[in-house]
Amino acid sequence: MALRVLVADDSLVFRRAITEALTAIPDVQVVGSASNGRIAVQKVLDLKPDLLTLDMEMPEMDGLSVLQALKQAGSATSVMVISSVTMRGGRLTMQALERGAFDFLTKPQGKDAAESKAMMIRELSPRLRALAHRRQIHDILRTAGSAPGSGIASAVAPLIPATPPPPTTSTRSPPSRLGPPGLVLIGVSTGGPAALARVLPFLPADLGVPIAIVQHMPPIFTQSLAESLSSRCSLQVREAADGDKLVAGQVLIAPGGRQMRLVAAPDAVARVQITDDPPENNCRPAVDYLFRSAAMNLPGRAMAVILTGMGCDGTLGLRLLKRHGCFTIAQDEATSVVFGMPKAAIDAGLADVVLPVDAVAARILSFVKGRGS
Predict the structure, then answer these.
(1) Residue that wins the pLDDT comparison between 128 and 89
(2) Of 321, 370, 371, whose CA–CA distance to 345 is shortest?
(3) Which of 148, 193, 265, 288 has the fewest beta carbons closer than 10 A?
(4) For residue 72, which phi and psi values (nearest 5 degrees)?
């Protein structure tokens, strides 16, 4: 069955461009378009598409207002933000992702029509495949969850609960280290801002170790992500800069469009290096790049977390980390927006525990404080 898409953008040029790109992708049907937010909401309610591509800055109702209206109406339509590459666009996109948008795509800048279309097809295709798979999984979970005595319905819980639930776990392999770590590494991609917003705010200021994160994002957006998370966390969250020290209680996010690695220093305080090394797994920043540096330069000091995301970035780096006893958490399928990265780690036998996203913070805290694995 074709994925049914509604396109909302106040620019006729972009509406046409997005529509043409979507139409060129197999198993995708564009069912309509909207030139402002109010029309978009009404058409979503009337047409019930699987996906709404949403411009954040539109007349009548902006993108955040559209998301709020759809939530209040109980719409099941997924939303993909089409964002401008600006600081304001980055901030609005982070807010949209944290409020439930599936993913985002940046508008082509300074490209001719053919190149823009090719770029959008290339960027949209894997996202739409992942969305189609996600909707199938959630349909299965909802059907199973409606059966008497089933607890699977929790897979469609609110994005950011007021308090984390008690941790539950699916142990796939015995823990591979004995002592608590001195560093937490997190790799995440599609669905990352919402996932991080369900993990980092539940970690205390006295966690006692630094956290280094790779979130697949272009420039500007990682700064907006760091600012958004910092506003709701006890920990200090910011975009990493070259030469930063790894300080307990601080969260450093790799800057978009660049690579981040960790290195040892003569004063025994590990530091960050930001480089322009090539992409890995078609990603820059790349999770493998960060994990590999920790395995090589800070052996035996890290635990690792793989959250929602497309592809398999992070798996090769985990193999190296595991040689030095790294304990690894992978997010489960039911709470992942896209189960690619966690699944790759699990299938490779590299995940010590598999957890729903709302149980990840409690497990990190327990392990860091040495209260068990």
Answers:
(1) 128
(2) 321
(3) 148
(4) -65, -30
| Domain shared by 212 and 91, yes or no | no
Q: What is the DSSP letter of 105?
A: E
* 278, burial (CB in 10 Å: exposed 0-12, middle 13-18, buried 19+): exposed
CB atoms within 10 A of CB 371: 9
Q: What angle do CA 289, 308, 320 make, to 5 degrees?
A: 35
Taking every pair of Cα atoms in the chain, the longest distance, rounded to a whole number of angstroms, is: 64
Give the residue numbers spanning the domain of 51. Answer: 3-145
For 8-154, where are the alpha helices, taking DSSP H only? Answer: 12-23, 37-47, 63-72, 87-98, 113-145
> Where does the chain show beta strands of DSSP type E?
3-8, 28-34, 51-55, 78-83, 103-106, 170-171, 183-188, 211-215, 236-239, 250-253, 259-263, 271-275, 302-306, 328-331, 353-355
Model confidence pLDDT, tens digit, residues 176-232: 445 688 999 999 999 999 999 999 999 999 999 999 999 999 999 999 999 999 999
Whether the bond between 201 and the residue before it is cis, its omega within 30 degrees of 0, is no
Q: Rounded distance, CA 134 to CA 339, Å?
A: 8
d(CA 306, CA 328): 8
pLDDT at 146: 57
192 and 287 share a domain? yes
8 DSSP assignment: E
Catalytic residues: 189, 216, 313
As a whole number of angstroms, the distance between CA 285 and CA 189 comes to 10
| Residues 85 and 205 occupy one common structural domain | no
Do 254 and 362 have their domain in common?
Answer: yes
The verdict on 114 and 196 lying in the same domain is no
Closest alpha carbon to 309 in 224, 229, 230, 213: 213
Domain count, the chain: 2
Decide if pLDDT at 78 tops 70: yes
Task: Say what the pLDDT of residue 133 is.
Answer: 82
